[in-house]
Amino acid sequence: PRTAAVVPAAGRGVRLGPGAPKALRQLNGTPMLVHAVRAMARARAVSLVVVVAPPDGIAETRALLDEHPPPASVELVVVPGGDTRQESVRRGLDALPEDIGIVLVHDAARPLVPVEVVDSVIAAVRDGAPAVVPALPVTDTVKQVAPGGVRGEPEPVTATPDRSLLRAVQTPQGFDRRALAAAHRRIPATGEGATDDAGMVERTGVQVVLVPGHEEAFKVTRPLDIVLAEAVLARRRL
Ligand code: CTP
Ligand code: MG
């Protein structure tokens, strides 16, 4: 079956601070989204990339991608996103042609994921896993608190999960196309929506498996992450 990558890029980037939508901001002179699309196109199996763009930035997104096109072997489609990440991913899935059997969902905000991670996710889906997620051990100890806390106020701790049993997940997450589409049909986009596609598939009773992620697949979320991403690119001489 053909493999496609859906790249949700429709977020505003509120935590990054004021400016253009996050995916359109530059890292060492090239938009984050362009880096992310290249990262998907580098995987030999990927023959289609569906970019889910900010609804008010479709023309700008198309123009940026025309300026920095992926190799001719990779087809590129741009569709408008929604109010939540989950809604944006659903719109990307709706744009997939019939012959796509494996779907990757990759955050535009993870522009530096190495191709080895992409390839290993695809390989695990090809080997029969319906939902595959790259993940790393958690380095910070994590505390659980009760809901309803007030930001800035001291919060009572309710539990400390065993760190050795926790993993931080990344993207691209890879799926049997039908398993992901079924999860998106069955689980309503309520509130903020799901933060993780595998989490939705998990809720439909499908087994999710983890493969090793990579430090450089970190998500650009806050201003410090831009500093780190540009340093990684400089080290790669890009
Ligand atoms: N995303 C999307 N549509 C939305 C919200 C998010 O396509 N309505 C995408 C983002 O563009 C990003 C990915 O989902 O590539 C991960 O989301 P996140 O890192 O939270 O990005 P933003 O939502 O843009 O950032 P913030 O939460 O700080 O506003
Ligand atoms: Mg967000």
Automatic annotation (TrEMBL):
SUPFAM superfamilies: Nucleotide-diphospho-sugar transferases. The keyword Amino-acid biosynthesis does not apply. It is an enzyme of class 2 (transferase). Catalyzes the formation of 4-diphosphocytidyl-2-C-methyl-D-erythritol from CTP and 2-C-methyl-D-erythritol 4-phosphate (MEP). CDD domains: CDP-ME_synthetase (cd02516). GO terms for molecular function: nucleotidyltransferase activity. Signal peptide: none annotated. Its EC number is 2.7.7.60. It holds the Pfam family IspD. This is 2-C-methyl-D-erythritol 4-phosphate cytidylyltransferase. It comes from Streptomyces sodiiphilus. The record marks R163, K219 as: Positions MEP for the nucleophilic attack. InterPro entries: IspD, IspD/TarI, IspD/TarI_cytidylyltransf_bact, ISPD_synthase_CS, Nucleotide-diphossugar_trans. It comes from the Bacteria. The record marks R15, K22 as: Transition state stabilizer. Belongs to the IspD/TarI cytidylyltransferase family. IspD subfamily. Keywords: Isoprene biosynthesis, Nucleotidyltransferase, Transferase. Pathway: Isoprenoid biosynthesis; isopentenyl diphosphate biosynthesis via DXP pathway; isopentenyl diphosphate from 1-deoxy-D-xylulose 5-phosphate: step 2/6. PROSITE patterns: ISPD. The gene is ispD. It catalyses: 2-C-methyl-D-erythritol 4-phosphate + CTP + H(+) = 4-CDP-2-C-methyl-D-erythritol + diphosphate.
